[in-house]
Amino acid sequence: MNTFDLLMLGFSEAMTPANLGFCLIGALLGTLIGVLPGIGPTATIAVLLPITFFLPPLAGIIMLAGIYYGAQYGGSTTAILVNLPGEASAVVTTLDGYQMAQQGRAGAALAVAALGSFFAGTVATFGIAIAGPMLSSFALDFGPAEYVSLMLFGLLAATILASGPVLKAIGMILIGLLFGMVGTDQATGAERLTFGSIDLFDGIEFTVIAIGLFGFTEIITNLERSGSEGVKVAPLTRLWPTREDFRRAWPAVLRGTGIGTFLGILPGGGATLASFSSYSLEKKVSKNPRAFGHGAVEGVAAPEAANNAAAQSSFIPLLTLGIPSNNMMAMMLSAFMIHGITPGPTVLTNQPEIFWGLVASMWIGNLLLVVINLPLIGLWVRLLTVPYRLLYPAILLFCCVGIYSINNRIFDVLLAAGFGLLGYIFRKAKCEPGPLLLGFVLGPLLEANLRRALLISQGDASVFIERPISLTMLIATVVLLALMILPSFRKKREEAFQEEEA
Amino acid sequence: MSGPGASKKGDLPDLLTAAIFIGFGALGLWLSRNLDGGTLSQMGAGYLPRAVSIILIVLGAAIGLKATRSASQPIEGLKLRPLLIITLSVIGFAYLAEHAGFVLASFWLVVAGTLADPGSRLRTTLLLAAGLTAFGALVFVKGLGVQIDLWPF
Amino acid sequence: MKHLKTLSLAAALTASAAGMAHADWPTDRPIELIVAFAPGGGTDVMLRTLAPYLEAELDAQFPVLNRPGAAGEITYTALAQARPDGYTVSSLNTPGFLTMQIERKLRFEPSEICPIARIVEDPGLFVVPANSEFKSLTDLVAYAKEHPGAVSIGTTGVGTDEHLAMLQLERSAGVDLTAVPFTGSNDAKTALLGGHISAIGLNAGEYATADHNSMRAIGQFSEERSILAKDLPTAKEQGYDVIISSERGLAARCEVPEEIRARLADAVDKALANPEFQAQAAKQSVPLSFQSGADWQAAMPARLERYRSIFALMKEGQ
């Protein structure tokens, strides 16, 4: 059977009324938990896992997958409306999405996010169908040395994220690195920076930092202006994006999709890195980089496309190699195993209806999500007209419950309150928290892989330039660094010339 | 450079930044004082924390030095009321959720949290607290299975 | 009415505090089952599958609570602080429960926690890529003898099953291997398939669900061959003294009345004998192996001593 026949087989499996129904349930449930800050798909899927026992294998897996990418859609909604990133990959969406909402363009931001995600999801799904096995061999080529080079590149890209001075951005990345080191050191088993507390033994949860620094801090500074009366969102000018918005968004969506599809395959920080680097790329190629951070539509379109593409392509290692690339995929693996199915090349040949049915259902799910989400935009936008004095206690409560639900630990809630306080101080010092979060996510990956690479090479540092992929990325890092330094040189020279002429 | 009568120097937000960076750097150094450092090829647990802390301190010092020489800039509107009330209401929620269950904790969070807003009215607050608590109990605890007791008993 | 409720509540509290509720156990309240790992992990899925069968055996409710963190210490601490009335039980995993007693200062007293029953015994094994030249542990050892440090073994951290297995092999065969820590066994598998490391340690259960066309096991570390890998020689058969297996079961506070613990153990035994449960466990490749709490506990000191000596050797080597 060729790919087309297999895809048709997949669609015929995914289109049965029952499977369509489970896909819809999953997508709806995913949107719901995505919108609720802090409540992640992992906990929900864990609760639902035993239920899938009683469903046919494909139906159960389709539903769980729906929850996963549904949550990606829903997560951007809170990021845009109330500056609350539900997960690492939505942090970048807050930068311009929330600004757009403040300017009365929430509808446009949500629509661009939904359409961009749909486009990216479609491309990535067909990417899985056509090039899945090839892409997975690319993921396998990524050893510790390659990761080190990629992380260095990512951290450098993080400095572009902030609109303020570069020195502050670097400092925030470093603080993020320190936070990332809290917990048990993987290589030696030593406890680091934990104050001897057992609650910090496993390190700090991403959501705790994100909700503290973004959610709580936002509420405090909003109220500070003059109580809830002072919080006025600009009146809604227009529900849908303008023609100009579309014109500027589509190239960004294309680039975001490309970056997301590739980086999503990589285990660990793939999806996060994808959304961060696509944002940095847009800011670099834009003719008007100053608009970023102040409601640039590209700043929503690119990372949203990237993180949805990455969400889809993160299925590739699981489906083609049987290896989950993140916690969510590990949960999906459990779902397969409950039914005695071991994902991998054997499933591709022996049970093609499972693989292709899932791939087809992902596309259908993305379509359903757009159909669900576009009409919902009107409703979400109306949420902004709810007086802030009624809205913020609700946000507060959702955040607290969400944080608690990650580990069922009260300590995490207290820690988030502390990060709220810290975020407030950052605001007063005019330091942007975005780079801190990227440092926090990428730092541990950088350290672990640096050590692995040197352990494997027995201390020989030349591995980083001997391996082609690693070398390419190091060169890219140097080029990026040059690009960052050169414009300021040029500007200074131009200024000097102008002074001479004057 | 500045003539007599010119405004004071010192970019306060940047000075605060310097204090934060140096503070975290110092804290990092202190906390990693007992960790094994190792060498670049055989990194111990303390190698990177110390390296990062030192860079952070240097960076903080550089920003601070520059800030003392640049034009004066104030720190914008400090108001302690929202900061303290929001923080305390979250801490109270944490305590109550553990010892008294979700219903009381959620009620406290909403009621205490609205005090941060000078314009809040008791009636609306109570209604809001009741509504949100009911919603939370139904959706989070019953619906999504968040593992938390509803009542203290 | 309200008075009455408060009164009866107070009465119930006093009664349970005095251990009087004993007679009603286990029907008057749900029995909390604390799992030391995040939802969706092997231990969690296994216990969530088991819970309904325990409920049927005891005619009680078994809600599953997850208290992940610190390799189980958070859960064991919570268990040690629970009222000893038989309404709180937890998961218990070795070697984690034992190795944490060696180096760490614990927040609970390990002797206060008594195993109820062992449910699973899952031996460790070493796995190489399918195209590797190592067909057995002997091949791997021979190569390592000629190239000290060049054979890299993926583990999931210091003091984990895989790491302990590697240290035992080093000691028994007199070779020098390089441990490369990964965040989880899935990361290690990816690095193995990419050819970045020579071998990884896995549990037999994990290996049974992995893709056998791309990787191959070269030796298992149990006393006798596991039911999941009947054709795979043990390390002992290949001439190396390496024994490690991951055991999972249930535990309660030792102060819980003997009678209640015995009934719990009995319920676990019966649930494990249920063919329906066995079928579900087989689908998940869970190697069931019931052992009574007393037997399990009796076997622990010797193992702890063994791990202690391995740790001591590791310290010397540093």
From TrEMBL, chain A:
Keywords assigned: Membrane, Transmembrane, Transmembrane helix
Pfam family membership, one: TctA
InterPro entries reported in the protein's UniProt record: DUF112_TM
Domain DUF112 residues, every copy: 20-438
Signal peptide: none
Entry annotated with the keyword Transcription regulation: no
Spans traversing the lipid bilayer: 20-39, 45-69, 108-130, 150-179, 200-220, 259-281, 328-348, 354-374, 386-404, 410-426, 433-450, 470-489
Record flagged with keyword Repeat: no
Record protein name field: Putative tricarboxylic transport membrane protein
Species annotation: Paracoccus laeviglucosivorans
Lineage: Bacteria, Pseudomonadati, Pseudomonadota, Alphaproteobacteria, Rhodobacterales
UniProtKB/TrEMBL annotation, chain B:
Key words of the record: Membrane, Transmembrane, Transmembrane helix
Superkingdom, natural source: Bacteria
Domain DUF1468: 16-147
UniProt entry tagged with the keyword Secreted: no
TM annotation in the entry: 12-31, 51-68, 80-96, 126-148
Pfam family, any one: TctB
InterPro entries with a match to the protein in the record: DUF1468 (IPR009936)
Protein name (record): Tripartite tricarboxylate transporter TctB family protein
UniProtKB/TrEMBL annotation, chain C:
Any single Pfam family the record assigns to this protein: TctC
Keyword annotations: Receptor, Signal
Range of residues in the leader sequence: 1-23
InterPro entries (UniProt xref): BUG, Bug_dom1
Origin: domain of life: Bacteria
Matches recorded under Gene3D superfamilies: Bordetella uptake gene, domain 1, Periplasmic binding protein-like II
Cross-referenced PANTHER family: BLR1237 PROTEIN (PTHR42928:SF5), TRICARBOXYLATE-BINDING PROTEIN (PTHR42928)
Family, per entry: Belongs to the UPF0065 (bug) family.
Designated name of the protein: Tripartite-type tricarboxylate transporter, receptor component TctC
